[in-house]
Amino acid sequence: MSNTASPSPKPIVYVEYDPSSLPPALPNYTRFVCIADTHSHEFYVPPGDVLLHGGDLTNTGTVHNFEKTMEWLYGMPHNVKVIIGGNHDLTLHRKWYDDNWDRWHYRIGKQDIKTIMELIKGPKAKEAGIIYLEDEKTTFQAKEGGRFWSAYGSPWSPWFYDWAFNYPREEGEKLVSKFPKTDILLTHGPPHRIFDRTSGGDYAGCVDLRNRLPILRPRLHVFGHIHEAHGAYIHSWKDGSCPAVQNDEAISEDVQDNIDTTVFVNPANWPMGKRRADYGTREFGGEGFQPIVVDIVD
Ligand SMILES: [Zn+2]
After folding, report:
1. Contacts for 95-104 with beta carbons within 8 Å, 24 or more apart?
2. Distance from the alpha carbon of residue 86 to the mean position of ligand 1, in angstroms
3. What are the tens digits of pLDDT across the range 26-79?
4. 107 CA distance to ligand 1 centroid (A)?
5. CA distance 179 to 197
6. What's residue 167's pLDDT?
7. Considering just the CA atoms, what is the radius of gyration of the chain in Å?
8. What is the CA(255)–ligand 1 centre distance, in A?
9. What pLDDT is recorded for position 8?
10. What share of the chain has pLDDT > 70, as a percent?
């Protein structure tokens, strides 16, 4: 018999489902529930082992916004909740906020970052299993006695009218070259040509992130930012190149057991664009914009 690596069963992904009849994860699988661009709104999120948030936790990162968002996250049943910021979470980008706060918060006054960090990283957050990542790596156990998963999170997205955590496109390569190889990658911005098409037809994702992915090959890559590009795709690294997929395409290609796969997920929950029109959804997390559930074998 050959001595090759044992076959790794395929990931299972739910993009559209009836929450009351979502099947439980199979034995030896970990259930990741992915959300993004929740902007201080609340809606139903299915239970699972791990919650992953792809950034834009709030509208403009006020203390009030964070109180609302974090209370919602504290109350969720997942053992571990890995979260990142996004371009709307203005206060989390401290240096930028010091220089720009009055453009946004001149009426309510400069927001207290200490209070916000306490909500995100304080005892209450820790007790609720929240891990906030800002250009850093973590490892966690999703289930008692289960395997350890590694994750890296980065709140940045390519420059767009000088919001928080924006980088000029020419600095993309420098940023992504620091991303380590992990099981899970969280970036607020999408990679180029992967769930990144705007309503205007632009592919807004980062080319340098796309070029880095064949090296990183995370088992799960969660992002957001382009709300209208909500979707998921199971990619097999057969020929070593990235896919080109948008939200109107099939969910998976020919996935083979002994080849690395990455599940790409843009779970943006704010209904926008053609998809919103097609589904007639207006509510956050509503039809067509539900949290995306990904089961991956341990
Ligand atoms: Zn957003």
Report:
1. 96/164, 96/165, 97/61, 97/164, 100/162, 100/164, 104/60
2. 7
3. 989 999 999 999 999 999 999 999 999 999 999 999 999 999 999 999 999 999
4. 23
5. 24
6. 92
7. 18
8. 31
9. 62
10. 97
Q: For position 252, what pLDDT does the model report?
A: 78
| Residue 123 Cα to ligand 1 middle (Å) | 27
CA of 226 to the centre of ligand 1 (A): 7
Q: Locate the domains of the chain by residue range.
A: 12-297
Q: Which tokens belong to 37? A: 């661009």
CA of 105 to the centre of ligand 1 (A): 19
Ligand 1 geometric centre to CA of 169 (Å): 19
Distance from the alpha carbon of residue 240 to the mean position of ligand 1, in angstroms: 30
Length of the chain: 298
Partners of 167 in the beta sheet?
A: 158
Residues 215-224 have a mean pLDDT of 98
Segment 155-167 shows an average pLDDT of 90
Query: How many angstroms is it from 127 CA to the middle of ligand 1?
Result: 27
Q: What are phi and psi of 229, to 5 degrees?
A: -100, 25
Cα of 88 from ligand 1 centre, angstroms? 7
Average pLDDT over residues 83-105: 97
Q: Which residues of 194-233 are buried (b: 16+ CB within 10 A; e: fewer)?
A: bbbbbeeeebbbbbbbbebbeebbbbbbbbbbbbbbbbbb
Fold of 12-297: Purple Acid Phosphatase; chain A, domain 2 (3.60.21)
CB 267 within 8 A of CB 259: no
Place of tokens 């994750």: 151
Whether the CA torsion 138, 139, 142, 143 is positive or negative: it is negative
Distance 58 CA to ligand 1 centre (A): 8
Amino acid at 228: E
CA of residue 187 to ligand 1 center, whole Å: 12
- The Cα–Cα gap between 125 and 135 comes to 19
Q: 39 C-alpha to center of ligand 1: Å? A: 7
